[in-house]
Design goal:
Helix content: 40-55%
Order of helices and strands: EHEHEHEHEHHEHHEEEHE
Number of domains: 2
Low-confidence stretches: 207-217
Structural class: alpha/beta
CATH topology of the largest domain: Rossmann fold
Largest sheet: 8 strands, mixed
Strand content: 15-25%
Number of strands: 10
Shape: globular
């Protein structure tokens, strides 16, 4: 048997890049896949069904099972139709992988409301909408011991604050908070929720890196990301819930969740001058990215 035999996956943004690799690798390991993609340009304009159709064709030619879906995930009813496609076609849904995204890169002082809204709509609303329908389906199954998987995509831009992508960074960090919330809300229904932060050479980042994506480049391939997603999609990954996993080429890293690293407490109400001087003394000596927790108690 293959690792994912009998399991059904929905992958958004699966027509190209990382989404295509995820859909293909999931199918190679036995999953039946709904390949969702609108075939839009990087900025979200236009539509083209041919990328999704080509991915499905390559999967079926290799002996797998897959169907095309071109619903708009950021449209609430469209997202519902996508999830229903999996249930109607394959009888169930076990795995939801939210990869779809667009770019509208601007520095914050040049960012228009339209470019802000477009990116937030696809990344954050799209992830919400598909998850909303999938989670309702999983809740309805009432399977406390289920092995359902929600795998969302965040980004280095959000985690580390890319300066030219404030809209993208906001959406991607929103997805982290959203995923953590889902991990707590859905665990009793047999669902784990995790976020992937990928670094891979695709058309989406070639303008940022100034290094064109190259066929055969083994340094940072979409398949590296897809392999980690495929592991997390399996039943044996139930130990991993509410985490961010970073993938850059052949290096896979578990990111730390937010924790308190410095803390000051007063025995009496703070005086503003004392509070300010204490914060500066205790907090400013702690460089961003340092490890370890330190607690300071002012007994005055």
């Amino acid at each position: 048997m293959s690792r994912l035999d009998g399991r059904v996956a929905v992958v958004t943004g699966a027509g190209r890049g990382i989404g295509q690799a995820v859909a293909t690798v999931l199918a190679a390991h036995g999953a039946r896949v709904v390949v969702n993609d609108l075939g839009v340009a990087l900025d979200g304009s236009g539509t083209d069904e041919s990328p999704a159709k080509q991915v499905v064709r390559s999967i079926t030619d290799a002996g797998g099972e897959a169907v095309v879906n071109t619903d708009d995930i950021a449209d609430f009813d469209g997202a519902g139709a996508l999830i229903q496609t999996a249930v109607n076609t394959f009888g169930q849904l076990d795995i939801l992988v939210n990869v779809a995204g667009i770019l509208r890169d601007r520095m914050i002082f040049n960012l228009t409301p339209e470019d802000w809204d477009a990116v937030i709509r696809v990344h954050l609303r799209g992830t919400y909408a598909t998850t909303r329908h999938a989670s309702a389906y999983w809740r309805g199954l009432r399977q406390a011991g289920g092995n359902h998987r929600l795998i969302n995509f965040t980004s280095d831009t959000g985690l580390f604050g890319g300066p030219g992508q404030p809209n993208y960074a906001a959406a991607k960090m929103g997805i982290v908070g959203f995923t953590l919330s889902c991990s707590n809300a859905l665990r009793k229904y047999g669902v784990t929720a995790n976020a992937i932060a990928p670094v891979a050479d695709t058309r989406m980042n070639e303008d940022l890196t100034k290094r064109p994506a190259r066929a055969g480049d083994q340094t940072r391939t979409p398949e590296d990301v897809a392999n980690v997603v495929t592991y997390l999609a399996g039943a044996e990954s139930s130990w991993c819930n509410g985490r961010v996993v970073h993938i850059a080429g052949k290096t896979v890293s578990l990111m730390s969740n937010p924790v308190i690293v410095r803390q000051v407490t007063s025995a009496t109400p703070w005086d503003l001058d004392r509070l300010g001087s204490t914060m500066q003394r205790v907090f400013s000596s702690f460089p961003q990215g340092s490890e370890g927790r330190y607690e300071y108690l002012d007994k005055r």
